[in-house]
Design a protein that fits this description.
With about 220 residues, the protein is an alpha+beta fold. Helix content is about 20%, strand content about 25%. It is built from four helices and eleven strands. The structure holds 2-oxoglutaric acid (AKG). InterPro entries: Cupin_8 (IPR041667), JmjC_dom (IPR003347).
């Protein structure tokens, strides 16, 4: 058989709903003939189910470091994958842009550009066929396929349904209250711009302290 791919070309399939803006990926709907081949571990209630995403990747394919807002089982069906994980508490060292890290090469990062990255503690594992990795919500993950592989991941809502953004079909939009809080913070920052620099600095620092006092959990170093 002749390959339709060029020598160094990489490919990746991430299944979506019929209308990705409205529908979630669900193997039972989009791939009914394959759905029974996957046994989803009985770990959450049926009502908490969110999506089952089919993923096919070529050797060498690397998916950027990102977080999702739901708990997730990453099930490796065939092939091998390397997964590098970072705790949510290491977010300050990951140079985030939305839900993704700007540091693309996590093995040989550009430390001139991303000096704080060295502080992020790396956890690494390899997934072989038949392995299932639990990726908790907000844990950053970077996935490299070491050979051609097929996988499925299962997202479920571990929080009450109304916490999630209703327009989220991927499982990666920030929680509704988090997005609202960020909008309010942006407005507060705009308001601080009305102050002379010295005052802006003073009130900015006081606000940071207040945020720390009110939001950091006690065991969060
Ligand atoms: O296995 C992959 O290709 C990506 C997995 C992933 O990003 C996820 O499970 O959220």
């Amino acid at each position: 058989m002749t390959s339709v791919f060029l020598k160094d070309e990489k490919y990746y399939l991430r299944s979506l709903g019929e209308d990705p803006r409205k529908e979630i990926a669900d193997l039972r709907k989009q791939f009914p003939l394959l759905a029974d081949d996957i046994q989803i571990p009985e770990y959450f209630e049926k009502e908490q189910f969110f999506s089952t995403v089919f993923r096919i990747s070529s050797a060498g394919m690397q998916l950027w470091t990102h977080y999702d807002v739901m708990d997730n089982f990453l099930i490796q069906v065939t092939g091998k994958k390397k997964v590098v994980l970072y705790s949510p508490r290491d977010a300050p060292y990951l140079y985030l842009s939305g839900t993704k890290s700007e540091v693309l090469d996590v093995d040989e990062p550009d430390l001139k550009k991303y000096p704080l990255f060295v502080k992020a503690r790396r956890y690494e594992c390899q997934l072989n066929a038949g392995d299932v990795l639990f990726i908790p919500a907000l844990w950053f993950h970077n996935v490299t396929s070491e050979e051609f592989g097929v996988g499925v991941n299962v997202f479920w809502k571990h929080l009450p349904s109304n916490c999630y953004d209703k327009t989220d079909t991927y499982g990666n939009k920030d929680l509704a209250a988090a997005s609202r809080a960020v909008q309010i913070l942006d407005r507060a920052l705009k308001t601080l711009e009305e102050l002379p620099e010295e005052y802006r600095d003073f009130y900015g620092r006081r606000m940071v302290l207040r945020i720390q006092e009110k939001t950091y959990s006690t065991n969060y170093e």
